[in-house]
Amino acid sequence: MVIFFMSHLNVEIKAIVNDPFFIRGYLVKHSAIFKGIDEQTDTYFNVNTGRLKLREGNIENNLIFYNRVNQMGPKSSHFNLVKIDDAKGLKEVLERSCGIKMIVKKKREIYYIDNVKFHIDEVPELGSFIEIEAGNILADKSEPELLDQCNFYLKEFGIKEEYLVAESYSDLLMKMK
């Protein structure tokens, strides 16, 4: 198993989206790079601080640890990302050692414009969402520059404050149980 370790910063938002066709159309019109549709399973594990999740998909397979406050609007997320070759084996080890907190399944369309990643998500029981992640993975940008990018797309998409979501999908699903 080959493991690559990377530490990064995102400024990101999540919002309820009533018209995913508008978002998709905007991205296509502005020459966004479409990476594909990923059927993802995110398994969240019990940890003392932050969040630890294993993402299993046909495009992305990563172990992700992150710290992020639950707040409306753009928020900073400091995260570590490990690409995984053996997700099944790692999941078994983490389940036995930490225990599973929550499992989230979603269908995710993935797009990029420069260093900004866009997700159009369909989450069973929750609905449709847009996530905007302005990150320093593909560009050497400061936190204020990433915030400016995130705010730019909030305006471009016409996302109103009442549609912003503070919590992760796992938090929202746990509230329903």
Structure, briefly:
With about 180 residues, this protein is of the alpha+beta class. The chain has helices at about 20-30, 85-100, 145-155, 170-175, and strands at about 5-15, 35-45, 50-55, 60-70, 75-85, 100-115, 115-125, 125-135.
Textual characterization of the structure:
The model is unreliable at 1-5 (pLDDT under 50). It is built from four helices and eight strands, in the order βαββββαβββαα. β6 and β7 form a beta hairpin. It has one domain: Hypothetical Protein Pfu-838710-001. The N and C termini lie far apart (36 Å). The protein is globular and about 45 Å long. It has an eight-stranded antiparallel β-barrel, surrounded by four helices. It has 177 residues and is α+β, with helices and mostly antiparallel strands. Helices cover 25% and strands 44% of the residues.
Task: Summarize the topology.
Blueprint: E1 5-16, H1 20-29, E2 33-45, E3 51-56, E4 62-68, E5 75-83, H2 87-98, E6 100-113, E7 116-123, E8 127-135, H3 143-157, H4 169-176
Antiparallel strand pairs: 1-5, 1-8, 2-3, 2-6, 3-4, 4-5, 6-7, 7-8
